[in-house]
């Protein structure tokens, strides 16, 4: 008996089997595709990034998640007392800041993504930035230390990486004047001006202490001295009081930085709250301070062209600082002579505002996007920074390229006086001639005179004959044409003082490391060629250092053998501001850099560290320096008993 074939059933089974096979193939292909995507994403996350990728990853992963802590849970600390700070006469908006930074940024992009070639991968991979981003997102900023840590790892280290990459490109190194690069440091040690130069500084002000709303409302063009420092009237309530509070608070914060800019001779500096960056500029006419407020997380969503993220702005400001002309001690002293003093501190200014007022938004505090257009920035080769993408989409998309007169402050304003009083003392200013600070291009190179020998300066001290081995003996002989010194030691000290009172920038060079009580300078009396060491110090430390001069008198007999030759001391009429040390106003003059020799004279050094023991090539022995901590042991001056033998 035959059975009919159920072709329909067979067809359906075959169709089902085919669909199942197709589905399995589709799933396998999808699995392979997903595996490829994951592999590519993993590779993208682990590979080095291009400059543009690096900037965008940093912003998306590190800046966007940043949160300010609850003020009630934030650290408070002791409120510092107000201190005198130099302040500008006017505040003005830095209107060409964006265009200046855009030009710098365009140059950076040309070097790090040359036109017509693939962008090199030079910077940290995404996976490294993700780890930092997770940590910062989990911890709101609740203290200045938190903000400092965030800025170090989220901004400064990355700016360092970018500048380091530029340093490896000779043309970039030359264009920006990069030297050996840049280093961010939070130590206040004095710099060796022969090898390192202070470019700029940064002030950290957490958002819970200085809100972006107060910065928006408080930073505005104004006659700062008459509106904030010494106003005729102060609003007591309503919107005007909130507006004044914002200006007073923002003003106190930036004046703190302006004071540093004057002392250090800086053109550029910035203040950050984490979510806001205030770029500051002091022109040659230092009576006006220029400001620009950037808010990276909002600016990247706007149509602002040019650098918008914190890293881009800080990078450009650092590169602009490299190209800024050096402002010498003459400029700084002239600036001090014309500026007003405002006795303030940010913490004190904030403490004077009622808590309820601090929580209110002042008028004019809404965010406003500042559009910028310029014919200079219409290049078809380099377009403005592209919109910021998420890290996932970024990894799959191709890279895109893209005169004022100096004004005197009011006569009743307190000023710093050029005196030997403590640095923080402020006295009413006397009427005196004002000097207008002038720009000095380039840094004075360390002068090339060699130090006079110990024997030369010892013979000068004793009015004896010249040392023929002194490298400067021809200059010593130039006037009298004899073998005797043309002047006495006291005259040398007087001539050095006269010269330094006129100019602190020539024949007066910092060298070596700054000690705990003084900084070493090479000082030359150009008229006779005498070159000696000047130990400069501040008024606060002068009392301790002055003791060293007394000790040198006790050690007169061993000067030039176990200790340097001491020539005298002087008080400077002008201030030499030294980073990390302060205002140098006093100096000991001595020859260029034992134990048993000084003990025999009753002196116990008390600080015989390696730094205070100097090898002298001329004498072929060690010289001891820095006697400000020593003491006199009278027991060491007593005659030693002699042994007596009994006759038997």
Automatic annotation (TrEMBL):
Region entry Disordered, spans: 15-36, 353-442
Listed InterPro entries: Kinase-like_dom_sf
Biased composition (Basic and acidic residues): 20-36
Gene3D superfamilies noted in UniProt: Transferase(Phosphotransferase) domain 1
Highest taxon of source: Eukaryota
Record's compositionally biased regions (Low complexity): 367-382, 390-411
Protein name (database record): Protein kinase domain-containing protein
Taxonomic source organism: Aspergillus uvarum CBS 121591
């Amino acid at each position: 008996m035959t059975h009919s074939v159920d072709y329909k059933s067979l067809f359906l089974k075959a169709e089902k089997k085919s669909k199942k096979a197709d589905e399995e193939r589709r799933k396998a292909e999808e699995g392979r595709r997903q595996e490829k995507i994951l592999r590519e994403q993993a590779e993208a996350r682990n590979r080095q990034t291009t400059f543009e990728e690096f900037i965008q990853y940093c912003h998306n992963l590190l800046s966007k998640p940043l949160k300010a802590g609850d003020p009630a849970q934030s650290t408070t600390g002791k409120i510092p007392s107000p201190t005198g700070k130099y302040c500008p006469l006017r505040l003005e908006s830095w209107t060409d800041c964006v265009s200046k930074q855009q030009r710098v940024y365009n140059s950076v992009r040309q070097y790090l993504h040359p036109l017509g070639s693939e962008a090199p991968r030079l910077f940290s991979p995404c996976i490294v930035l993700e780890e930092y981003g997770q940590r910062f997102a989990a911890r709101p900023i609740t203290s200045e230390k938190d903000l400092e840590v965030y800025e170090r790892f989220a901004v400064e280290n990355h700016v360092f990486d970018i500048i380091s990459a530029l340093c490896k490109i000779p043309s970039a190194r030359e264009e920006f004047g990069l030297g050996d690069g840049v280093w961010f440091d939070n130590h206040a040690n004095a710099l060796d001006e022969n090898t390192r130069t202070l470019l700029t500084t940064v002030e950290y002000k957490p958002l819970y202490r200085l809100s972006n709303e107060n910065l928006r409302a408080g930073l505005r063009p104004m006659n700062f001295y008459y509106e904030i420092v010494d106003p005729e009237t102060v609003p007591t309530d309503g919107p005007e009081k909130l507006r004044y509070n914002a200006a007073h608070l923002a003003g106190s914060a930036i004046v703190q930085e302006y004071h540093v800019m004057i002392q250090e001779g800086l053109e550029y500096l910035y203040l950050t709250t984490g979510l806001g960056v205030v770029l500051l500029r002091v022109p040659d006419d230092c009576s006006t301070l220029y400001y620009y407020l950037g808010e990276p997380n909002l600016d990247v969503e706007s149509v602002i062209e040019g650098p918008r993220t914190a890293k881009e702005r800080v990078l450009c400001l650092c590169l602009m600082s490299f190209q800024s002309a050096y402002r010498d001690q003459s400029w700084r002293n002239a600036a001090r002579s014309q500026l007003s003093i405002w006795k303030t501190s940010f913490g004190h200014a904030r403490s004077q505002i009622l808590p309820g007022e601090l929580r209110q938004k002042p008028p004019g505090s809404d965010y406003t996007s500042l559009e910028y257009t310029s014919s200079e920035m219409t290049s078809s080769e380099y377009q403005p920074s592209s919109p910021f993408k998420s890290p996932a989409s970024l990894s799959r998309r191709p890279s895109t390229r893209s005169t004022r007169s100096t004004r005197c402050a009011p006569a009743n304003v307190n000023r710093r006086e050029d005196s030997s009083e403590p640095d923080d003392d402020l006295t009413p200013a006397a009427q005196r001639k004002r000097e207008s600070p002038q720009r000095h291009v380039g840094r004075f190179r360390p002068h090339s005179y060699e130090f006079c020998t110990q024997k030369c300066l010892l013979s000068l001290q004793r009015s004896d004959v010249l040392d023929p081995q002194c490298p400067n003996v021809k200059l010593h002989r130039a006037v009298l044409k004899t073998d005797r010194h043309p002047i006495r030691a006291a005259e040398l000290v007087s001539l050095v003082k006269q010269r330094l009172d006129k100019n602190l920038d020539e024949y007066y060079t910092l060298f070596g490391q700054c000690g705990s009580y003084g900084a070493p300078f090479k000082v030359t009396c150009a008229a006779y060629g005498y070159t000696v060491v000047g130990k400069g110090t501040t008024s606060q430390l002068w009392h301790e250092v002055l003791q060293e001069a007394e000790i040198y008198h006790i050690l007169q007999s061993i000067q030039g053998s176990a200790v340097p030759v001491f020539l005298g001391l002087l008080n400077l009429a002008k201030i030499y501001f030294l980073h990390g040390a302060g205002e140098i106003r006093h100096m000991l003059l001595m020859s260029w850099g034992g134990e048993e020799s000084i003990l025999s004279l009753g002196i116990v050094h008390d600080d015989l560290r390696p730094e205070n023991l100097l090898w002298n090539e001329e004498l072929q022995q060690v010289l001891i320096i820095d006697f400000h901590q020593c003491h006199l042991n009278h027991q060491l001056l007593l005659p030693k008993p002699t042994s007596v033998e009994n006759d038997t």
